[in-house]
Amino acid sequence: MAINPTEGLTTQVETKTRLKTDMGPEPASLAIYPSPPTEVETQPTTALIYDEWYPAMRSQSLKGKRLRTAMLLGIPLVLGRKADGGLFAMRDSCPHRGIPLSCGWFDGDRLTCKYHGWAFEPRSGQCREIPSLTSIDTLDPSKIYAVAFPCEERDGYAWVFVPKPGRGRVRGSDNLPSIPETPKLGTRYRSAHLTADLPCNIDHGIIGLMDPAHGPFVHQAWWWRTRQSIHEKEKHFEPIPEGFRMSAHAPSGNSAPYKLLGVYGEPITTIIDFVLPNRRYETIQCGPKWFSSLTTVTPTTPSHCRIDVVAAWNIFYNVPLVTTIAKFFGGRFVRQDQETMIQQAEGLKHNPSLMLIDDADRPAKWYFALKQARLEASEGKGEAKHPMAGPVKLRWRS
User: Fold this and answer.
1) Is there a domain that residue 94 lies in?
2) Model-level pTM greater than 0.85?
3) Among 72-86, 141-155, 158-172, which is the least confidently predicted range?
4) How many structural domains is the chain composed of?
């Protein structure tokens, strides 16, 4: 066994510990990261990536004058839709006395605090009224701002930009990263959404997302694959900005959904990208037919996360009930992952030592290295260095 002592991501529990992982271009056969101190009874939290867009909730739930709440990166949010159709997201806390703004009233233009009637324009957070002020007061309410976050609608989600603590007020007009979106290879397509809460920190959620070896065990089913279908696979990976790509290849021959595409009589190829902080893109093409998805694992709190999947396709476009069928089987697939993560959380309560092996766990190592480089760069410790020097060929059985 070879152990790489390079220190990785800082985790935050009641006392601080270090997550060790292989950061070198040639990972050791085993990379072990230790458990937190035994007196800590819950699984450790992990470092979070800020200055990024995260999906807060389905945008279809934001209607009329209704306010909704959500958690992102441990931040309580209140969200809604203004009368002009634009979405907003504010920290669910009045800057006056801290009562949740979601307890107040929203008239389609202003959000009014229940406690003292302070009223805010919700997209900017600017205070528009303080009812208790008298004619002799010199305080200008418009100079007071509640915390508001850029919030935009894409692919049926309310995406919220979460800045690094201490960055100051962020406006939607600032030079922000592009909002993630599911790849679409045409204007005529169907789509579906799935979601599940996971009782684990973001790192466990993401390395579970990119794990290539769990399929025949977690997702055993006649319509997907069985343990007996395991065989050796070889895939090519290449570095891309902020992530890595499983290069174009024929999809797994032991998965029933891919076999169905054979009815079109065209070669089938798939490309899978992982991009920081939490995104997995997959695009499958079969001649003019295509299927694409964007899967995100979003930290809701430092020790919990949520998986969201939005898919778009034009395959079997005219098949009756195709969306209902896709959501049924897709939902079962996601619930299998959710159930496994719930079971894993029970084991993590006892703070076991864990390991990453080659080659099936190499993508997880790349993720940890990419994240560490991103965190260090955000702290002014130089440019983020990509852990992949060039294309890599990996082999595993699944």
Assistant:
1) yes
2) no
3) 158-172
4) 2
